[in-house]
Amino acid sequence: MAELGKTLHAWRDRVTPAEAGLPAGGRRRAPGLRREELALLAGLSVDYILRLEQGRSSAPSAQVLTALARALRLTDSERDHLFVLAGQTPPRPGAISTYIPPGVQRLIGQLEGAPICVCAASWTMISWNPLWSALIGDPSVFRGRERNIIWRHFMRPGIAGFDRVAQTPEQAAGFTRAMVTDLRAATARYPNDADLRDLIKELRTGSPHFAALWDDHVVGFHESNVKTINHPELGEMLLDCDVLTAPGSDLRLVIYTAAPDTEAAEKLRLLSVLGLQALS
């Protein structure tokens, strides 16, 4: 694991805080990320990053390696090399990828005034910016299936922290059809993805509504909508919601924006300053 540690350290040194969307934070001995910053970006502990770099940790999991590749903005080839150094098999083309290319990460960083969430082809949330957490609720408190938007919609409607988005009956029906269509398309592109098969099995078994839509082969597409967000501190906010597909990947970007010079735009600006801290 010594070579893995040296490589991680070298990659950490080449990523600047600005590139990662972080403040510079005073004087630095090197221009790259501090261990604390890499830990924050990857969702890992500082102690674990230290042990990895010192070669004192056991083989990291594929999930940890994917998080590190995302935080370090590695290319596909570098990500695969990271997996090899850690003794893991690089992600196969037949499996849904949770890797976010550097270009997409830069796009997210440049849209800091808009709440953004990035989802895999299965609609599992893999990244989000602080403004998304402040607006919708912090996804980091959830684990496993709870981070999958489709599973949550059919199996746990109104789950705490994610019940702020109000939809008209027409919007809800369109959203449901689009999600089922997306999931069916994912099965065609990734027929060998075991987790995707398990997800669909769970949904068909646990949700008669999903099973009926799946068996009826419904078709729907994502459309731009004006949605009402009921924020616990700022009240009602009317925001435009768009779902974009990242070029060259199956990643979905869900983005909320406000029309200029509106009350919602002012509330978003206030939210970007205050973040998750209590407004009371």
Automatic annotation (TrEMBL):
<dbReference type="InterPro" id="IPR001387">
    <property type="entry name" value="Cro/C1-type_HTH"/>
</dbReference>
<dbReference type="InterPro" id="IPR010982">
    <property type="entry name" value="Lambda_DNA-bd_dom_sf"/>
</dbReference>
<dbReference type="Pfam" id="PF13560">
    <property type="entry name" value="HTH_31"/>
</dbReference>
<feature type="domain" description="HTH cro/C1-type">
    <location>
        <begin position="28"/>
        <end position="79"/>
    </location>
</feature>
<protein>
    <submittedName>
        <fullName>Helix-turn-helix transcriptional regulator</fullName>
    </submittedName>
</protein>
<dbReference type="InterPro" id="IPR041413">
    <property type="entry name" value="MLTR_LBD"/>
</dbReference>
<dbReference type="Pfam" id="PF17765">
    <property type="entry name" value="MLTR_LBD"/>
</dbReference>
